[in-house]
Design brief:
Blueprint lengths: L9 H19 L6 H27 L3
Length: 64
């Protein structure tokens, strides 16, 4: 169905983990976190839910 290999999406996962690591490091150092960083993290979460939810639906729930 999809022409992309699953490993292609590991690139996005790497970028997300770098961002989350940087954000957690800033929070541990008690550096003020900008509002745009929180919005970006929220958008990453929503996009991740949409992507993972569609994969779960297509590959697991649609077959029932």
């Amino acid at each position: 169905m999809f022409s992309l290999e699953p490993q292609f999406f590991d690139i996005f996962g790497f970028v997300v983990f770098v961002y989350i690591t940087l954000l957690s490091w800033l929070l541990l150092r008690r550096i003020y976190v900008k509002k745009w960083m929180i919005i970006v993290l929220f958008l990453i979460g929503v996009i991740g839910l949409l992507v993972d939810g569609s994969v779960v639906y297509v590959y697991y729930l649609k077959s029932f």
